[in-house]
Amino acid sequence: MRFASRTPLPPPSTKPIGWQQPSRKHAMKINQREFDEYLAGLAQDDPAVREKAARGLAKYSNTEWQGTPDAMSAAVPVLAKATRLRGATPSDITVRAESAKALGNIGGESPVVVAELLRLLKEDSESGVRTEAAHALGKIGERAETASRALAAVISDPDSGDILRGEATWALARVGPLAPGTAATLGAAVDDRSGYVAVRAAEALWKVSGDAGRAVLALVARLADPTVRHAAAQALNRIGPGAKGAVPALLIAAKSKDRLFRESVVMALRKIDSVAATKAGL
Questions:
Q1: Which residue of 72, 83, 157, 234 has the fewest C-beta atoms within 10 A of its own C-beta?
Q2: What is the mean pLDDT of residues 244-266?
Q3: What is the pLDDT of residue 87?
Q4: Are 59 and 139 in a shared domain?
Q5: Domain count of the fold of the chain
Q6: Which domain holds residue 266?
Q7: Cα 112 from chain centre
Q8: Residue 89 DSSP class
Q9: Backbone angles phi, psi at 6, to 5 degrees
Q10: Sequence-ordered alpha helix ranges (H) in the chain
Q11: pLDDT of 151-185, one tens digit each?
Q12: Cα distance between residue 205 and residue 203, in whole Å
Protein backbone atom coordinates (compact mmCIF):
# COMPACT_ATOMS: atom_id res chain seq x y z
CA MET A 1 0.00 0.00 0.00
CA ARG A 2 1.29 3.47 -0.91
CA PHE A 3 0.68 6.43 1.33
CA ALA A 4 0.26 9.99 0.08
CA SER A 5 3.12 12.27 0.94
CA ARG A 6 2.49 14.50 3.91
CA THR A 7 3.26 18.21 4.09
CA PRO A 8 5.72 18.78 6.92
CA LEU A 9 4.15 20.43 9.94
CA PRO A 10 5.44 23.88 10.90
CA PRO A 11 7.64 24.02 13.94
CA PRO A 12 5.78 24.64 17.20
CA SER A 13 5.29 28.31 18.05
CA THR A 14 7.46 29.75 20.78
CA LYS A 15 4.90 32.54 21.42
CA PRO A 16 2.68 32.19 24.51
CA ILE A 17 -0.97 31.37 23.97
CA GLY A 18 -2.97 34.52 23.29
CA TRP A 19 0.09 36.49 22.16
CA GLN A 20 -0.56 39.09 19.48
CA GLN A 21 1.80 41.21 17.43
CA PRO A 22 1.70 44.70 18.96
CA SER A 23 0.25 47.28 16.63
CA ARG A 24 2.49 49.96 15.17
CA LYS A 25 0.38 52.61 16.88
CA HIS A 26 0.89 51.20 20.36
CA ALA A 27 4.55 50.45 19.68
CA MET A 28 5.39 54.14 19.14
CA LYS A 29 6.87 55.59 22.29
CA ILE A 30 9.01 58.56 23.16
CA ASN A 31 12.69 57.93 23.80
CA GLN A 32 12.86 58.51 27.55
CA ARG A 33 16.49 59.63 27.71
CA GLU A 34 15.98 62.14 24.91
CA PHE A 35 12.73 63.34 26.45
CA ASP A 36 14.33 63.92 29.85
CA GLU A 37 17.07 65.97 28.18
CA TYR A 38 14.53 68.14 26.36
CA LEU A 39 12.36 68.63 29.43
CA ALA A 40 15.33 69.69 31.54
CA GLY A 41 16.57 71.95 28.77
CA LEU A 42 13.30 73.85 28.63
CA ALA A 43 13.91 75.09 32.17
CA GLN A 44 17.45 76.33 31.46
CA ASP A 45 18.45 80.00 31.23
CA ASP A 46 20.48 79.51 28.06
CA PRO A 47 18.19 80.63 25.16
CA ALA A 48 19.81 78.23 22.68
CA VAL A 49 19.27 75.28 25.02
CA ARG A 50 15.64 76.27 25.64
CA GLU A 51 14.97 76.66 21.94
CA LYS A 52 16.47 73.27 21.11
CA ALA A 53 14.41 71.68 23.88
CA ALA A 54 11.16 73.25 22.71
CA ARG A 55 11.78 72.14 19.12
CA GLY A 56 12.59 68.64 20.35
CA LEU A 57 9.36 68.30 22.33
CA ALA A 58 7.35 69.70 19.42
CA LYS A 59 8.57 66.95 17.09
CA TYR A 60 6.74 64.19 18.99
CA SER A 61 3.47 63.14 17.37
CA ASN A 62 0.17 62.62 19.16
CA THR A 63 0.64 58.88 18.76
CA GLU A 64 4.01 59.04 20.53
CA TRP A 65 2.57 61.12 23.37
CA GLN A 66 -0.37 58.74 23.74
CA GLY A 67 2.03 55.82 23.83
CA THR A 68 4.01 57.44 26.66
CA PRO A 69 1.43 58.78 29.14
CA ASP A 70 3.98 59.42 31.89
CA ALA A 71 5.93 61.70 29.56
CA MET A 72 2.73 63.49 28.58
CA SER A 73 1.83 64.14 32.21
CA ALA A 74 5.30 65.45 32.97
CA ALA A 75 5.50 67.64 29.88
CA VAL A 76 2.20 69.53 30.12
CA PRO A 77 3.02 71.76 33.13
CA VAL A 78 6.54 72.45 31.85
CA LEU A 79 5.29 73.38 28.39
CA ALA A 80 2.52 75.51 29.88
CA LYS A 81 5.15 77.43 31.85
CA ALA A 82 7.26 77.86 28.71
CA THR A 83 4.32 79.46 26.86
CA ARG A 84 4.40 82.17 29.53
CA LEU A 85 8.02 83.02 28.86
CA ARG A 86 8.08 86.77 28.44
CA GLY A 87 10.36 88.40 25.95
CA ALA A 88 10.44 89.55 22.36
CA THR A 89 13.75 88.03 21.30
CA PRO A 90 13.60 85.58 18.39
CA SER A 91 14.52 82.77 20.77
CA ASP A 92 11.74 83.60 23.24
CA ILE A 93 9.21 83.74 20.43
CA THR A 94 10.39 80.40 19.05
CA VAL A 95 10.13 78.75 22.48
CA ARG A 96 6.53 79.93 22.91
CA ALA A 97 5.54 78.90 19.38
CA GLU A 98 7.18 75.47 19.60
CA SER A 99 5.69 74.89 23.04
CA ALA A 100 2.25 75.67 21.59
CA LYS A 101 2.91 73.18 18.80
CA ALA A 102 3.90 70.51 21.33
CA LEU A 103 0.73 71.13 23.37
CA GLY A 104 -1.34 70.77 20.21
CA ASN A 105 0.33 67.44 19.48
CA ILE A 106 -0.38 66.25 23.02
CA GLY A 107 -4.08 66.96 22.53
CA GLY A 108 -6.98 67.84 24.75
CA GLU A 109 -6.80 65.09 27.37
CA SER A 110 -5.60 67.68 29.90
CA PRO A 111 -7.75 70.81 30.36
CA VAL A 112 -4.52 72.74 30.88
CA VAL A 113 -3.62 72.30 27.21
CA VAL A 114 -6.67 74.02 25.75
CA ALA A 115 -6.60 76.72 28.43
CA GLU A 116 -2.97 77.64 27.69
CA LEU A 117 -3.46 77.61 23.93
CA LEU A 118 -6.53 79.81 24.28
CA ARG A 119 -4.57 82.23 26.45
CA LEU A 120 -1.82 82.41 23.82
CA LEU A 121 -4.36 83.03 21.07
CA LYS A 122 -5.91 85.89 23.00
CA GLU A 123 -2.94 87.47 24.73
CA ASP A 124 0.39 86.80 23.06
CA SER A 125 2.02 89.84 21.49
CA GLU A 126 3.43 87.91 18.52
CA SER A 127 1.24 87.02 15.55
CA GLY A 128 3.37 83.96 14.78
CA VAL A 129 2.81 82.53 18.26
CA ARG A 130 -0.91 83.22 18.06
CA THR A 131 -1.01 81.51 14.65
CA GLU A 132 0.69 78.43 16.10
CA ALA A 133 -1.82 78.42 18.97
CA ALA A 134 -4.73 78.60 16.51
CA HIS A 135 -3.30 75.69 14.52
CA ALA A 136 -2.78 73.67 17.70
CA LEU A 137 -6.39 74.24 18.77
CA GLY A 138 -7.52 73.12 15.33
CA LYS A 139 -5.50 69.92 15.63
CA ILE A 140 -7.19 69.15 18.93
CA GLY A 141 -10.59 69.52 17.27
CA GLU A 142 -13.90 69.49 19.11
CA ARG A 143 -12.25 68.94 22.48
CA ALA A 144 -11.24 72.58 22.10
CA GLU A 145 -14.75 73.84 21.38
CA THR A 146 -14.39 76.45 24.12
CA ALA A 147 -12.05 78.30 21.74
CA SER A 148 -14.78 78.83 19.12
CA ARG A 149 -15.69 82.37 20.15
CA ALA A 150 -12.08 83.49 20.40
CA LEU A 151 -11.30 82.08 16.96
CA ALA A 152 -14.36 83.79 15.49
CA ALA A 153 -13.22 87.07 17.03
CA VAL A 154 -9.78 86.68 15.43
CA ILE A 155 -11.31 86.03 12.01
CA SER A 156 -13.44 89.16 12.28
CA ASP A 157 -10.55 91.36 13.35
CA PRO A 158 -8.65 92.76 10.33
CA ASP A 159 -5.82 93.89 12.60
CA SER A 160 -4.99 90.29 13.51
CA GLY A 161 -3.13 89.74 10.23
CA ASP A 162 -4.07 87.60 7.25
CA ILE A 163 -1.99 84.51 8.12
CA LEU A 164 -3.45 84.28 11.62
CA ARG A 165 -6.98 84.96 10.41
CA GLY A 166 -6.68 82.34 7.68
CA GLU A 167 -5.42 79.76 10.16
CA ALA A 168 -8.27 80.65 12.49
CA THR A 169 -10.86 79.81 9.80
CA TRP A 170 -9.45 76.29 9.49
CA ALA A 171 -9.29 75.92 13.27
CA LEU A 172 -12.84 77.17 13.81
CA ALA A 173 -14.22 74.62 11.36
CA ARG A 174 -12.51 71.87 13.36
CA VAL A 175 -13.18 72.94 16.96
CA GLY A 176 -16.74 74.19 16.53
CA PRO A 177 -18.33 72.96 13.30
CA LEU A 178 -21.79 73.05 14.88
CA ALA A 179 -21.19 75.93 17.27
CA PRO A 180 -23.59 78.89 17.03
CA GLY A 181 -22.09 81.48 14.75
CA THR A 182 -19.48 79.29 13.04
CA ALA A 183 -21.20 79.15 9.66
CA ALA A 184 -22.07 82.85 9.81
CA THR A 185 -18.49 83.84 10.65
CA LEU A 186 -17.05 81.74 7.85
CA GLY A 187 -19.75 82.91 5.44
CA ALA A 188 -18.75 86.52 6.04
CA ALA A 189 -15.06 85.69 5.68
CA VAL A 190 -15.43 84.22 2.19
CA ASP A 191 -15.84 87.78 0.92
CA ASP A 192 -12.88 89.11 2.89
CA ARG A 193 -10.59 91.73 1.35
CA SER A 194 -7.73 89.24 1.85
CA GLY A 195 -7.68 86.54 -0.78
CA TYR A 196 -5.81 84.22 1.58
CA VAL A 197 -8.47 84.53 4.28
CA ALA A 198 -11.28 84.21 1.74
CA VAL A 199 -9.94 81.00 0.18
CA ARG A 200 -9.35 79.31 3.52
CA ALA A 201 -12.74 80.44 4.80
CA ALA A 202 -14.49 79.14 1.68
CA GLU A 203 -13.14 75.63 2.10
CA ALA A 204 -13.83 75.72 5.83
CA LEU A 205 -17.43 76.80 5.17
CA TRP A 206 -17.90 73.88 2.80
CA LYS A 207 -16.62 71.48 5.44
CA VAL A 208 -18.95 72.69 8.19
CA SER A 209 -22.05 73.16 6.03
CA GLY A 210 -21.70 70.37 3.47
CA ASP A 211 -23.06 72.82 0.89
CA ALA A 212 -20.48 73.71 -1.74
CA GLY A 213 -22.51 76.43 -3.45
CA ARG A 214 -21.32 79.49 -1.54
CA ALA A 215 -17.78 78.17 -1.25
CA VAL A 216 -17.51 77.47 -4.98
CA LEU A 217 -18.67 80.97 -5.90
CA ALA A 218 -16.08 82.49 -3.59
CA LEU A 219 -13.28 80.27 -4.89
CA VAL A 220 -14.15 80.94 -8.53
CA ALA A 221 -13.89 84.66 -7.80
CA ARG A 222 -10.34 84.13 -6.58
CA LEU A 223 -9.13 82.26 -9.68
CA ALA A 224 -8.26 85.65 -11.17
CA ASP A 225 -6.19 86.69 -8.14
CA PRO A 226 -2.55 85.80 -8.88
CA THR A 227 -1.67 85.74 -5.17
CA VAL A 228 -4.12 82.94 -4.25
CA ARG A 229 -5.32 81.36 -7.50
CA HIS A 230 -3.26 78.20 -6.95
CA ALA A 231 -4.84 77.78 -3.53
CA ALA A 232 -8.32 78.42 -4.95
CA ALA A 233 -7.87 75.77 -7.66
CA GLN A 234 -6.55 73.27 -5.13
CA ALA A 235 -9.51 73.93 -2.82
CA LEU A 236 -11.92 73.32 -5.71
CA ASN A 237 -10.06 70.07 -6.40
CA ARG A 238 -10.61 68.96 -2.81
CA ILE A 239 -14.32 69.78 -3.02
CA GLY A 240 -14.53 67.56 -6.09
CA PRO A 241 -17.78 66.84 -7.99
CA GLY A 242 -19.68 69.21 -5.71
CA ALA A 243 -17.85 72.08 -7.42
CA LYS A 244 -19.34 71.55 -10.89
CA GLY A 245 -20.43 75.16 -10.91
CA ALA A 246 -16.75 76.08 -11.23
CA VAL A 247 -16.21 74.15 -14.49
CA PRO A 248 -16.74 77.07 -16.93
CA ALA A 249 -14.31 79.27 -14.99
CA LEU A 250 -11.79 76.45 -14.71
CA LEU A 251 -11.92 75.81 -18.47
CA ILE A 252 -11.00 79.45 -19.02
CA ALA A 253 -8.29 79.29 -16.37
CA ALA A 254 -6.85 76.18 -18.07
CA LYS A 255 -5.64 78.49 -20.87
CA SER A 256 -3.32 80.33 -18.47
CA LYS A 257 0.34 80.65 -19.43
CA ASP A 258 1.32 79.96 -15.82
CA ARG A 259 2.30 76.28 -16.03
CA LEU A 260 1.96 75.47 -12.33
CA PHE A 261 -1.40 77.18 -12.06
CA ARG A 262 -2.60 75.44 -15.22
CA GLU A 263 -1.61 72.07 -13.78
CA SER A 264 -3.62 72.80 -10.63
CA VAL A 265 -6.62 73.78 -12.75
CA VAL A 266 -6.42 70.65 -14.90
CA MET A 267 -6.23 68.44 -11.82
CA ALA A 268 -9.30 70.16 -10.41
CA LEU A 269 -11.22 69.76 -13.67
CA ARG A 270 -10.42 66.07 -13.91
CA LYS A 271 -11.60 65.55 -10.33
CA ILE A 272 -14.76 67.68 -10.65
CA ASP A 273 -15.94 66.72 -14.15
CA SER A 274 -13.77 64.26 -16.02
CA VAL A 275 -16.10 64.33 -19.04
CA ALA A 276 -15.73 68.08 -19.44
CA ALA A 277 -11.97 67.80 -18.98
CA THR A 278 -11.73 65.10 -21.67
CA LYS A 279 -13.84 67.09 -24.11
CA ALA A 280 -11.50 70.04 -23.59
CA GLY A 281 -8.52 67.82 -24.37
CA LEU A 282 -7.15 68.09 -20.85
A1: 157
A2: 95
A3: 83
A4: yes
A5: 2
A6: 211-282
A7: 20
A8: S
A9: -110, 140
A10: 24-27, 32-41, 47-58, 62-66, 69-82, 90-106, 111-123, 127-140, 148-155, 162-175, 182-189, 195-209, 213-221, 229-239, 247-253, 259-272, 274-279
A11: 999 999 999 999 999 999 999 999 999 988 999 99
A12: 5
Pick the last residue of a domain from 185, 210, 235.
210
The pLDDT score that the predictor gives to residue 27 is 56
Q: What is the identity of the amino acid at 7?
A: T
Instruction: Say if CB 154 and CB 148 are below 8 A apart.
Output: no
End-to-end CA distance of the chain: 72
Q: Clarify whether residues 47 and 180 are in a common domain.
A: yes
Does residue 206 share a domain with residue 104?
A: yes
159 burial level (CB within 10 Å; 0-12, 13-18, 19+): exposed
Instruction: Please name the residues in contact with 103: beta carbons below 8 A apart, sequence gap of 6 or more.
Output: 76, 79, 80, 83, 113, 116, 117, 136
Which residue stretches of 181-253 are H helix? Answer: 182-189, 195-209, 213-221, 229-239, 247-253
